[in-house]
């Protein structure tokens, strides 16, 4: 076997091994127009992304509850109102920071334990 043939063989083996590894994690079969059955790797949604978003949302809720507890309901509402009269980003922050039932409940829990 010449060097170019070996390189071609090696590239083909790497491609087959990579495809086999992808298919071993799950696959979906489909039929082409010509009747050929083709296996494609199944795309999996990353659980790390969902976990990260959940952690950020929980952290935001705890932060809001803590601020609501520290400032008090009147001062907290006043500051959110001040945010709502600002720029686009400040208005978006006011929507996110508005007191909701979970925030009020968390503020009550902080009052109990702090």
Give me the number of helical elements.
Answer: 5
Order of strands across the main sheet: 1-2
Q: Count the strands? A: 2
- How far apart lie the N and C ends? 78 Å
Strand content: 5-15%
- Using only CA atoms, what is the Rg? 28 Å
Structural domains: how many: 2
User: What is the 3D form?
Assistant: elongated
Low-confidence stretches: none
Main sheet properties: 2 strands, antiparallel
Structural class: mainly alpha
Helix-strand pattern = HEEHHHH
What proportion of the residues is helical, as a percent range? Answer: over 70%
The overall pLDDT average reads 92
Plain-language structure description:
The structure is a single chain. The chain is mainly alpha-helical. The protein folds into two domains: 3-41, no CATH class; 47-113, no CATH class. It has helices at 3-24, 47-71, 73-84, 88-97, 101-113, and strands at 27-31, 37-41. Strands 1-2 form a two-stranded antiparallel sheet. Helix 2 packs across helix 3 (73-84) and helix 3 (73-84) packs antiparallel against helix 4 (88-97). It is elongated and about 80 Å long. It starts with a helix and ends with a helix. The model has no long low-confidence stretch (mean pLDDT 92).
Key features of this structure:
114 residues; 2 domains; two-stranded antiparallel ribbon; mainly alpha; elongated
Question: How do you describe this structure in short?
Answer:
It is built from five helices and two strands; from the N terminus they run H-E-E-H-H-H-H.
């Amino acid at each position: 076997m010449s060097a170019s043939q070996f390189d071609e063989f090696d590239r083909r083996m790497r491609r087959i091994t990579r495809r086999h590894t992808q298919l071993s994690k799950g696959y979906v079969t489909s039929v082409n127009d010509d009747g050929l059955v083709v296996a494609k790797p199944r795309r999996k949604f990353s659980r790390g992304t969902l976990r990260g978003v959940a952690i950020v949302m929980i952290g935001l809720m705890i932060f809001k509850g803590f601020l609501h507890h520290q400032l008090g309901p009147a001062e907290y509402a006043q500051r959110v109102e001040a945010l709502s009269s600002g720029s686009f980003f400040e208005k978006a922050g006011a929507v996110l920071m508005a007191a909701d039932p979970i925030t009020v409940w968390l503020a009550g829990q902080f009052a109990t334990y702090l």
